[in-house]
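Notes from hallway chat w/ T.B., transcribed later so I don't forget. T.B. wanted the structure written out for a chain they're using in a teaching module, and asked if we could keep both sequence and structure tokens in one place. Agreed to drop them here.
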Amino acid sequence: MLKTSMKHYNYIFTGTGLAALLTIHELIQSDKLKDITILLIDSDAKKTNDRTWCFWDDANLFEALVSKEWKNTLFADENYKKVLNIEPYHYKMIQGLDLYNYIFDEISKHKGIHFLQDKVVDFSELGNQCLVKTEQSSFTCNKVFNSIYNPKLVASQKKYPLLQQHFIGWFIKSKEPVFDENAATFMDFSVNQNGNTRFMYVLPTSKNEALLEYTLFSKDLLSKDEYENEIELYIEKLGITEYEIIEKERGNIPMTSYPFWENNSKNIINIGSAGGWTKASTGFTFKNVTKKSKQLVSFLNTDSDFTKFHKKGKFWFYDLLFIDVLYKNNAIGSKVFSGLFEKGDSGLILKFLDEESTLYEDLKVILKCPKIPFMKALFGRVIK
């Protein structure tokens, strides 16, 4: 037992990213906070609109926070453009600051939850307690929920390859009314691929306003100018002659099937990207994290050993094969997604990506993919 006069909490969250905030939200909704003290630690106060989250939804997930939704989505490559029927889903967007304000307003109503703006430098498990160190202080707790991503874990091994979903986005207001505000461009592969998987992602909020993101699924990042030059070329291709940039955003999401959960201990759990909660094959985060946070809070009602929380499933293996294929032949991405969306059932594909499809439905989706690269990846994994 660790003997200390340091401030003690039941739970400490190292980082207040999406996973931490939604887990706190689920704890509040579950009415599990009686006699529980929680400390949230982050160097960022979450006071700026630093990101957007998008997801497809057939319910009312955080409906009050949805700033825009689209009934239609578009898919394009160099040969064709298709309006996707994604029923029963709508594609939705939530602004980062709206979610931050909502969750921190919930937190303010609970005296046992505290926020500290500081940088976590270390955390460890010592007997039945954990120690968390920041640049300014140290604390003890019963459980640590860590969402600080450690890239060295993936870089130090070769069994599970790493791709990055990296992008720069411009939210622009144009002179010309060129956008269809009722349709989001899910993927436009008509941009030059340059040996990678590259596409433009467009979220129109009016006929004159849209978020345009130049996005890659690849091993290596680009220089800032490379992303922005491609955005400028795309804007020109849309027929826009005058525009202003309202906001910019930049992101880099790890895409890997590395089993982060194997680094969990009895009292320390890795969550969010640090815990493998990002959907490896797409980089989509929001929907996955809402599910995982609910599962985690439910788990806390029945067990206290975090090494028992995560189990591998069929969708983890599908993602593993997908990453293997794109890692070995990054230029094939456009062909893979075109194979899925050109003739496939778009609603079923999204159900599959949400990890809610049956085995029969899985096969209907998988058989739309290029067979030889995936068979090679499957054979490679069996050999390993």
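Follow-up for T.B.: The longest strand covers residues 243-255. Might be a good example for the class.
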